[in-house]
User: Fold this.
Amino acid sequence: MLAFRDLTPEDRDLVVPMVQAFYRSDAVDHPVDAAILERSFQDAASPAEPLLRGLLIQWEGKPAGYMYLTQCYSAEVGGRCIFIEEIFLKPELRGQGLGTEIMAWLEREYPAALVRERFRQIDSSHIERLLDAILENKVPVRNTKAYLLAALFDAPASKDNYYTMAAASSG
Assistant:
């Protein structure tokens, strides 16, 4: 059975090795200083940091991974947004449907109305940008469905920034 609990500082020796494994994986394309990873864990495990929530993912009572969720208010969507900042499952537990269960938990924990509203904002220009990004991507995508869902969810918030950066770099 899948379970979640908020991280505590006592989880450091359990979670930080998983964080390091995440940052050595293909999910990350650049090195990150160990001090930053440590500070991020401390913030994720602290109730005093309101914008970052760290969760231990457990499968059958044993540690299975971790997740960092970032919270913010978006004027664009008129409410609170939750972003999966990082998610890691131990390799031996991947491909067993746990990702689907994690997403179902997130939908229960955080109202789906926000997600529906975000997807309602997608138009043909967002799809066009996504197709451009797929062609530009040099890293193999292991979970195409998750990649596309995340990219489409982020599309309304990221499209304008992408075209601003592209115009700046071409001029």
The longest strand covers residues 62-74.
